[in-house]
Amino acid sequence: MSSSSSSPPSSPRRRPVTAALWPDMVYGVLSDSKRVVAAHSRHFLALTVLFILPLSLLLLILFTPSLLPPSRSLLRSSSQFHLLSSILYPLAAVLLLLAATSSISASTHHGFFGRPVHLLPTLTSIPSPILRLILTLLFPSLLLFILLSLLSLSPSPLFHSLIYALALLLLIQSSFTWSLVPAIAVLECTWGFHPFRRSFHLLTGMRCAALILNLSFSLILGLILWGFNSGVGLNSGICSQAVRDIARTVLGSGVTTLLLLYWIVTSTVLYMYCKALYGELEAEILREFAWDYVFLPFDDQKVPRVVSVVTQL
């Protein structure tokens, strides 16, 4: 291996961000997300059935308690059952979300470069990213728990409104500052506070695009959960209650599953776009396609010439 005569730059130069860049970036992220999912539709369908569909059903159960049958048995009416369900349902939802984020982010990363994706290696690689996500999101979860615990300190409506406003501000802040944290923790094998600093750095100048994407998905998802919770459009007297519940479950889980899938995919593609703006994607492309290039040893000022033999995928 020959040494380079000139030292590499200390940090990649960032491309200038203009005011008209973020709409193009939003369109490009959505277009590439659709392209990646369409190119590996069966793979993402399998991951969706394994993780996102059960997660969607759990979300419908958590946010629409009317989908549960009425309390008839002693077990269902007991406080132990309610305590157990209030712990198990959110815990299962969190684990499914972490597994979906880990597997779909890694698959999107491979699909973004046109690499083949395989289900079994994706599933076997899930535990390590899940552990990194847990260690990374531990501090924000603790902060959220403290905010919720403060609600029990005072019955004042003003105090409750203040806590809710603070939680909303933190949520909005995280949507355009730390939205790349899951993708960074999964793809860069980091955990702790580093993914937060890295996300803040990559989203500099592109927070408007991240805010629009995340708020759009969260707003649509919230409206869907609210609509199925209130039974909007399904309270007609033509159908029985059982038919309405089945329709709400099928429609709600289907739409929620699709939204969650594309939310995770677009977050990963947005991460790739931000890396491209910082000039970090070129080196990764060279690593990805290292076996598809031939380096001929031309001695022309010590600069190797690259002959592309990339096969059409």
TrEMBL record:
Keywords from the named record: Membrane, Transmembrane, Transmembrane helix
Transmembrane segments: 44-67, 87-109, 130-151, 163-187, 208-226, 246-265
PANTHER family listed in its UniProt record: F26K24.10 PROTEIN-RELATED (PTHR33133:SF7), OS08G0107100 PROTEIN-RELATED (PTHR33133)
Protein name, per record: Uncharacterized protein
UniProt organism field: Dioscorea zingiberensis
